[in-house]
Amino acid sequence: MDFEMVTLRTIHIVFGVFWAGTAIFFAFIMTPQLQKLGPPIMGALAPVMAKVMLISASITIVFGVILVLRLRSGNLDTIFDTGWGWAMLIGFLASIGAFTTGLMTSALAKRMVALGGAIAGRAPTPEEGAEMQSLSTRLPRIGRATAVMSLIAIGTMAAARFV
Prior knowledge:
elongated
């Protein structure tokens, strides 16, 4: 048994499943409910979620890159000669896409929290109302994109060994 590879894979898989599972749960189950409760609740939860997701995503991606380098002994010149290599590339690109949209979600959530704080206790101006509406529409859409890319990453990497 190769203790190093078992450890690397375990860390990569556990954090990857947590990242993707949380993205899927948040996008398709939690966000619709939070929208009904309003910006104060979503604003309180979003920064915590963003921090946890960023850490988990970073660990997943870093350990994934380490795994590929270890499995290929640092030799990447023939990686695309195999279905495994192509599946890893697709999964990696989907992961980077999910990471990027996750960062976008975090930035938009921070804007929503700041805007919500600015208009607390008073009626929003038409511009503030329009921006809040735009943020309320964009956040769930980007969250769903993150979840879908996470599913693509998991699917391609899980199947890579068999292609």
